Amino acid sequence: MSKPTFAISCPVDTYSGYGARSRDIVKAIIELDKYDVKIVPQRWGNTPFGFIKNHPEWEFLNKHMLTNPQLPAQPEIWMQITVPNEFQPVGKYNIGCTAGIESTIAPAEWIEGCNRMNLILGSSEHTIKVLKDSKFEKRDQKTNQTVGQIIFQTDSEVVFEGADTETYKPTKSNFDLSSIKEDFCYLFVGHWMQGGLGEDRKNVGLLVKAFYETFKNKTKKPALILKTSQVGSSYMDRDGILSKIKAIRSTVKSNNLPNVYLLHGEFTNEEMNQIYNHSKVKAMVNLTKGEGFGRPLLEFSLVNKPIITTNWSGHVDYLNPEFTVMLPGTLTNIHPSAANNMLLKEAQWLSVDSGHVGHYLKDVFENYKRYSDLAKRQGYQSRTNFSFEAMKDKLDKLFDEKIPEFPKQVQLTLPKLNKIGNGNLELPKLQLPKLKPVE
Predict the structure, then answer these.
(1) Which residues, 6+ apart, have CB-to-CB distance to 216 below 8 Å?
(2) d(CA 150, CA 139)
């Protein structure tokens, strides 16, 4: 019996966060072995293509890839893994999968996009809550009169981004960090996005500033490693990051500052795990203003090392404040320097309490064992509850519950006709009535 077609439009072959999410979701659905999976590959902004070719372990996806963007027939199930304004119903049952928004308001176009689908899968409780809480007046384009509301009106569920526990785990590291002289390093992983100091979404600028200020003039100092980029891995991008770091350094009044190092370029998952496990890398720090999920934080937690981050948005689903430093802050409006058509200037996100940043940077450095012991408990929780296998199990149960049964093609079996003697069909004799002459 044929399986229902499950067509998935996503940036599966790109070097991007959504690319990683796409590969995991597609792999999980293929492994369920309940659907005929077809992949419709898409771009993701300016991020480069070619991930699958450069990572042979993912080449099994190629046999599911459609080279022609036109589907041969309407699929029973259609999924798009992207931002919600791009959602379009194509199948008999339509699923939108998104990490959602990192602030407190999703754009009206996103809500309208969600309402075009039968089911929305968000990466976190934060994602779904913001979609449901975002409301807009709908106005007549000619009269500008209010004619209704744009509100979230479709089914939704949270499906976390399951971590690869076979790759991200404690192990001996051979990664070369010999050029770093310090034995205690904080690590940041993420893009340095648009926005002034303290206003970019990942808050990299403020992190660099706070690190310099916290450890300036100290006899014993840790280092900060930034695994970051703005757009890609070009020399121009690298030089742009270095210029930002130097500009921030110049604002700190001291000739005795800690060192900040830059790791720039593309790394495999295995290389990232080697970096996480290096003996010089002691903790991850991320002063993020908002996350739809925050994959690096979950993946780093699997190596049982301390994390310092903010206590708001997507990552609070899996980081336990009993085992992780979750910094407080205040919700503030998105600064115009960081706002765009998705991050609305009237929306808010977290501005971390800078006093707590300095305190915990010093405390983790000076009392590392206490935080390291707690980190092991966080690692156990992450492995147990937020693995790829746990995500796949949740998808399986959700699909069984949500996706309707589709009519199945049944083979028509005709009854066999008996043969008589020479193979001719035996027909019943026709009995005609006797005719009488007309009188």
Answers:
(1) 252, 254, 256, 257, 258
(2) 10
Q: Is 264:225 a contact under the CB 8 Å cutoff? A: no
Q: Dump pLDDT digits (tens) for 33-87.
A: 999 999 999 999 888 889 999 999 999 999 999 988 788 899 999 999 999 999 9
The letter for the amino acid at 314 is G
Whether residue 245 sits in one domain with residue 343: yes
405: left (phi over 0), alpha (psi -120 to 50) or beta: beta
Q: Strand 93-98 to strand 77-81: parallel, antiparallel, or no bridges (unpaired)? A: parallel
Is 248 in the same domain as 362?
A: yes
Q: Which of 357, 385, 413 is the last residue of a domain?
A: 385
In angstroms, the CA 342 to CA 344 distance is 6
Q: Kindly state the tokens that stand for 392.
A: 């796949």
Measured between alpha carbons, how far is 335 from 321 in angstroms, rounded to an integer?
Answer: 28
Looking up tokens 């019943």 gives 428
Which two structure tokens, joined as six digits, stand for 141? 């384009």
Tokens 């002289």 belong to 181
Distance between CA atoms of 293 and 295, rounded to whole angstroms? Answer: 6
Q: Are residues 136 and 9 in the same domain?
A: yes
Tokens of 254: 């001291």
In total, how many domains does the chain have?
2
Question: Collapsing DSSP states into helix, strand and coil, what is residue 390?
Answer: helix
Q: What is the pTM of this model?
A: 0.89
pLDDT band at 421, cuts 50/70/90? very low
Distance CA 189, CA 47 (A): 17
Average per-residue pLDDT for the chain? 92
Instruction: Give the closest residue to 165 by CA, choosing from 365, 7, 380, 345.
Output: 380
| Cβ pair 260, 208 in contact under 8 A | yes
Report d(CA 388, CA 28) in Å as an integer.
8
Q: Which domain holds residue 288?
A: 185-385
Residue 305 has φ and ψ, to the nearest 5°, of -120, 155
**How far is residue 243's CA from residue 237's CA, in Å, rounded to a whole number?**
10
- CA 149-98-348 angle, to 5 degrees, is 60
